[in-house]
Amino acid sequence: MTPARLHRFMNLWPPFLFSGIRVQHVAPDWRSARVRLKLAWYNRNYVRTHFGGSLFAMTDPFWMILVMECLGRDYVVWDQAGSIEFVAPGREDVYAEFQVDEAVLEELRAATAGGQKYLRWFDTEVKTAGGELIARVRKQLYVRRKRRDGAA
Length: 152
Description:
InterPro entries: DUF4442, HotDog_dom_sf
Protein name: DUF4442 domain-containing protein
Largest sheet: 6 strands, antiparallel
Shape: elongated
Number of domains: 1
Mean pLDDT: 95
Radius of gyration: 16 Å
Low-confidence stretches: none
Oligomer: single chain
């Protein structure tokens, strides 16, 4: 999978397509991504703001995918846990950005060098185009270096 193919696939993937979620960018080096959630009649809740499940879904796979691709095939990377804090009602399109820094990758490599698992939280802010904070999403990743015998 290349970043360009992932970009196209995610925009046609039914859970995103039918929720108004659009991947706007995936960096060629897998270090960043940007996602938009359009506010539409089909993804509003009872009080006509963004449905919380859509806010969480727009952020769900990206930390795992980006970290997995940046670390390479010698690592196991899974989503372990997640949480969302709703800060303000979302009444317009919202955006989430993901940035994987080299320091984080070095931290993960060092923590798993002996084959042990490592759990790390990643934070994402969901904001409007004007910068208003709508939600904070936290995802915890399980990271472990694969065993030499090829077993996960």
